[in-house]
Amino acid sequence: MAKLISQTDLKEIYKKEVKELGETRIAEIIKEKRNIQSEGKKSKSVFLCHSHQDKTIVDKITIFFNRLDVNIYVDWMDNAMPKVTNGETASMIKSKIEFNNRFLFLATYYGLRSKWCDWELGVAYSIKKVTELAILPIESKSGQWRGSEYLKLYPIMVIKEDELEHANSNSVTIEKDHNIVTLEQWLSY
Question: 96: domain range?
């Protein structure tokens, strides 16, 4: 299996995007993502399960998937979400997991320790087919990311480090055992 992308890899691609598009346009793209759910778009939409302590990684992932023409739903980008976490938050998150056609767990140091991420993964598992779920492991800065054993139940999204700069929806793959599909295929079935 190819080396998984790291926070450093994401930072490099983000810097290139900033250089190409400018900081103002990058901020606009991230802000535009806040409105996607209110527009009723479901095609190529992915609920991004993540720890809020990974905000900088989430910004970079949002920009990366924007390049691939994939809509990423991020709860804290949704202006309709309650400002203070409560029961309504859980209800809304559950409906967003249902609404988006795919679910992606951002497996980072903080994501693996988050009770909310565990809960969201459980909700997704109960409503979606396993083929509609994927784990995106991000290596820690030290390169010592280790997954929890239960994550082996789910397909892994592979973004090859050496293809990161020129990645497209056919070079990013979703892999489980010997079954490999492209991101484009995963979003389409």
Answer: 7-22+44-188
pLDDT in tens, 85-109: 899 999 999 999 999 999 999 998 8
Q: Judge whether 105 and 118 are in contact, CB under 8 Å.
A: no
pLDDT digit string, tens, across residues 158-181:
887 777 777 888 889 999 989 999
CATH number at residue 74: 3.40.50.10140
